[in-house]
Amino acid sequence: MPDQQRATLWRHVQRWRGVVIIGVMGAITLWLAAVGQLVLYIHPRYILFTVIMSAIAVAAAVLALASPRQHDDEAVAPPSRRSRAVSLAAAGLAVAFTVGMVLIPPATLSTATAEQREINATASDDAETLAAASVADAETVAAFTVREWSTVLRQTSDLAFFDDKPVTALLGFVTADADDPENTFYVSRFAVTCCAVDAQPLGVPVHLPGWAEQYPPDTWVQVSGAFESNPSRTGTQPVVLVPTVVEVVDQPSEPYLF
Amino acid sequence: MTQTTAEQHAGHDHGSAPVRRRARGVHVAWAVGATVVLVALVAVRAVTAETGPWGIPNPVQDLLTLSTSVIIESLPFIMLGIVLSVLVQVWIPESWLLRILPRNPWGRRAVISLFGMFLPVCECGNVPLARGLVRRGFTVPESMTFLIAAPILNPVTIITTHQAFGFDDGILIARLLGGFAIANILGWLFSKHPQPMSLLSGRFAEECRLDDGHGHDRTRREQSLDLFVRESSILMPALVIGSLIAGAIQVIVPRDVLVALGSDPLYSVLAMMVLAFIISVCSNVDAFFILPFASTFLPGSIVTFLVFGPIVDIKMLALMRTTYSTRTLVQLTTIVALLSLALGLVVNYLA
C-alpha cells in the first residue's frame, strides 16, 4: 500500500472508531436492558440512567455517520508511522472487545472470582442483622438468603440460636471450601452494591462428603437442612449446614444479591 | 433532522440543486445503513446469547464480565460528559463562563473547582469537559483543578457518600475538604510551569491550535456532532483498554492480600490506594463499593480511597493520557498520591 493510502486509512480509522464503538456498545446495552440481563453488570438502580444515555449514544452515532464530513483533519500532517501503528492497535483491540460483546454470551461471575476474593471477607451492618434474625418468625427465616445466613454465622456459633431456625431452599452456586474441599462446599452468591466490579462473595458452608461428584463447582443449587457443629477436622467453620435436600436448579435471572 | 443538516451542508459547499439533492441522498443512505447495521448486530447478539457456553475458562470469562461491567458503568457518564462538553463549547456563550470568574488566580481556581456542583458527572465524564474548557481558553492548570475537584465536589457524589457513611468519622467532610485542597494545590503547582501548553499531549495540543479560527461557517448542530465524533474517537479506545487492564488485574491479584492490611494506620492507607488504583470505579458510586470495607479498615484509609480513586486509577490514567503528556501524568500521580497519603494519615491519627 502506498504511503498516501495508508495515511488515509489511518485517518478514517482515527475518525470513526469511537463512533462505531459507542454506537454498538449503546445498542448492546439497550438489548441487555430489554432482555433483563443488564443486572449481570450493574445494580438495578442505575438501569434507567444507563438506558437513557445509551439511547442518546446510539442516536448521536447514527446522526454523526449521516452528517456532513468536516475535512479539516486532512490539513494536519499525519504522525509518525510508529504512533500510527500504536493508534491502530488500540482501535483494533477496542473494536475486538466490542465484537466480543456482540458474540460472547453474557455471563455472571464464577467461582474463579469467588475464590480469588475470599468468601465472607467483608460485611457491614452485622449486629443489626443478628438482632433482627433472633426475633424473626418462621416465615421470615424461611426467606433468608445467603446474605442473612452468612452474616448470622459470622456473629454467632451458638447452636441453640439455630435450633428453631431450619434452612429452607437456600439458593446459590457451589464453591469449594478452601480448608476442607473434600467434605465442605459453600452455597454462595455475589453481593453487588454498584456493579459487578465490586461483587463480594458471600456463602454458607454445607457439609456433604463427596459433594463434588454430584454438584460440581458453579452448579446452582437449592439446599434445605439444619445448622450443626462442624464434623470436619480440617474445616475452620464452627457451624455448618447439614443438608437434607440438595436440588440442582437453573441459574436465576438475577444471580447477584442487591 | 438529518435532511436539514444535509441541505445546509450542501448549501455551504456547493449550491447547485442537483448536487444538493445527491448530497442529501448520500446522508440519508448513511443514516439508514447505520441503523440497519445496528439492528442486525442486535439480532446477532440475540441469537448468539442462546448458543450457550463457549467453553471459555472461568478466569477469562470473569475478566470479560468485569471489564464489561466497568464499561457499562462508565459509558453513560462518558456520554453525559460529552453532551455537557458540547454544551459548554458550542451552545453556551463564551462570556458566561469567563464573566463569573474572579481575576486573582487562587480565586479563579477555587471557583473552577466548584464547577462540579452544576455538572454532576463522575471522573470519566469530566475528561471531555476538561478538554472542552481548555479549548474554551482556560489554562491547562485550571483544567486540572477542575478535573480533580469536580468528581468529588458534585451533588451526586456528595449524596451517595452521605448515604453510605452519614457523618461518621468525618469521612464525608474529609473527602470534600481533601478533594478541594488537593485540586487547588495541584493547580497552583502546575501554574508555576513556564510553558503550560507543553503539559498537554502532542495530539491534543495540535487540536487546540487548529480550533482557532475554525468552525465559524458551520451550524451548531454540525459542530456538535463533529465534537461527538472527535471526543468518542479519543475516549472510547482509552476506556476499553483501561477497563480491560482493570479487569485483568482484579482477576490476578488476590483481594485478601489487601484486606489483611486493614487495621494498620500506615499500611491500611497504602492498601486502599492500591485498591482504588486497580478497581477503577466511578466517583459517583465508589462510596457504596467501599462501605463493606469500613468495618475492617481505618477511617483514614477509607478517606484516602475516596479522594485518591476519583483522581488516579487505571481507567482514568488511560483517559487522561488522551489530553495530558505522560510526563505530566507521572508528576500528577506522584503529587496526588503523596497528598492523599498525608490526608489519610492525618485522619487516622485524629479519628
TrEMBL record, chain A:
Residue intervals of the DUF1980 domain: 159-258
Presence of keyword Membrane: yes
Keywords recorded for this protein, A-Z: Membrane, Transmembrane, Transmembrane helix
The protein's name: TIGR03943 family protein
InterPro entries: DUF1980, DUF1980_C, UPF0703_membrane_permease
Transmembrane helix keyword on record: yes
Membrane-spanning parts: 20-40, 46-65, 85-104
